[in-house]
Design a protein that fits this description.
single chain, about 325 residues, alpha+beta, two-stranded antiparallel sheet, binds cobalamin, binds iron/sulfur cluster
Length: about 325
């Protein structure tokens, strides 16, 4: 039997529908609170806006993003036919950046263990189990680092919409969640894509952004605090440096999500899955590490390890010595 897209399915293979239902239930059991399936055809509706975004130079500080690859999941992996997309909640009601006396703000996504290390093995184990069920099946695990439009795939898979802050909002589940993608070489019936975005006339995120990085459904990385505290050691322009000092976001930034009405009663991360939090979040600014060895020790197995100690020191200086 040959399914659409030229993928060969041996006659002895079981029915794709129960297989899809099984994949979904296993992904839910692995900690994803929402799971959906989409096809892997190139993104067409998104093409013009994506290309304009790059032509305007918005990708300059993120040189790993390439419009041609982003627009076609099969440019990343030619065998891709189905994307299983999962939303993995990470918010914790008790994790409120800046709430401890004298502390700086570290984004919620950094309060637990490194999410790459948490999500990738779960999806890899799911793939392994799926291969036992469906011989010959191939797959690729993508969490954050692959050139793939994960939020657009999530919309296609019916998980939610991209809010005006550009993040995926899983309806009443909110936006405090990581996305994990398992690309599969097998064509499975896709879920219904999410319909119209539900931001309505709200503009809370645009107004809350400390550095004016947002216009509706569009982010300018050269103004986003996360770019300068996590992604690049480039010097922020003076007005962005001033916003950084004023807002005290020392690693990442949650300002646009904190004000979102869809985050009023969100899906919370499961403490059993989402580990203990580092002491960095509640230390007062004066007690934060400045030395390389201490930084390495305190950031071990956390996503903050991706920030080099000299970058961290530069951010601290921008906030505390300004
Ligand atoms: C690069 C990147 C960043 C960059 C750029 C962010 C961005 N919005 O693109 C920076 C460093 C700033 C960043 C910050 C953050 N990130 Co980030 N990031 C990524 C990454 C690796 C790629 C994103 C990408 O491809 N951007 C390219 C641009 C072009 O994509 P886009 O904005 O969606 O493009 C559309 C719009 O621009 C629109 N458009 C363009 N022009 C116009 C004009 C009009 C009029 C309209 C209507 C639309 C429009 O059309 C484009 C095509 O659809 C993804 C992982 C992945 N592989 O997907 C994680 C990812 C998006 N990040 C994530 C997170 C958690 C964050 C932070 C919250 C971390 C933090 N707390 O500090 C912040 C949030 C900032 C924000 N408001 O988005 C999560 C988001 C989870 C979720 N619920 O959505 C992801 C999915 C990682 C993951 N696997 O979990 N990130
Ligand atoms: S993460 Fe912060 S700086 Fe970046 S767009 Fe959101 S509010 Fe603005
Ligand atoms: S704050 Fe308002 S405009 Fe921004 S993403 Fe949430 S609902 Fe949409």
């Amino acid at each position: 039997m040959v399914l659409g897209g030229g993928v060969h399915v041996p006659a002895e293979h079981p029915d794709p529908l129960p297989f899809k239902a099984w994949l979904r239930s296993e992904a839910l059991a692995a900690g994803f609170a929402r799971v959906g399936f989409s096809g892997c055809d190139p993104f067409q509706a998104e093409e013009d806006q994506l290309r304009t975004w790059f032509q305007e130079g918005r990708g300059t500080l993120l040189p790993y993003l390439d419009p041609a690859t982003l627009l076609d999941p099969r440019a990343l992996w030619p065998q891709a036919r189905t994307a299983l997309v999962g939303f993995f909640p990470y918010g914790r009601p008790e994790a409120v950046p800046g709430s401890a006396p004298g502390s700086l703000k570290l984004s919620r996504y950094l309060w637990g263990p490194d999410y790459h290390m948490l999500l990738k093995p779960r999806l890899a184990r799911l793939l392994e189990a799926a291969q036992a069920w469906w011989p010959g099946l191939e797959g690729r695990v993508c969490v954050d680092t692959a050139p793939l439009l994960e939020r657009q795939l999530a919309v296609r898979a019916g998980l939610g919409w991209q809010g005006k802050h550009t993040l995926l909002i899983a309806g009443k589940g909110g936006s405090w969640g990581f996305l994990g993608v398992l690309l599969l070489s097998l064509e499975l019936p896709p879920d219904k894509p999410f319909g119209t975005q539900q931001c309505g006339t709200c503009t809370a995120c645009l107004e809350a952004c400390p550095s004016g990085a947002l216009t509706p459904f569009r982010l300018d990385p050269s103004r986003c605090l996360t770019t300068y505290t996590i992604e690049t050691e480039a010097e922020p322009p003076p007005e962005v440096a001033a916003a950084l000092a004023e807002s005290r976001w020392a690693a990442g930034c949650d300002a646009c999500q904190e004000v979102c009405p869809w985050n009023r009663a969100p899906l919370w991360g499961d403490p059993a899955l989402w580990g203990g939090s580092s002491p960095l979040h509640t230390r007062s600014a004066e007690d934060l590490p400045r030395g390389a060895a201490q930084w390495r020790k305190l950031t071990r197995r956390t996503a903050l390890r991706r920030v080099r100690d000299r970058h961290w020191r530069a951010t601290l200086a921008r906030i505390l010595d300004s």
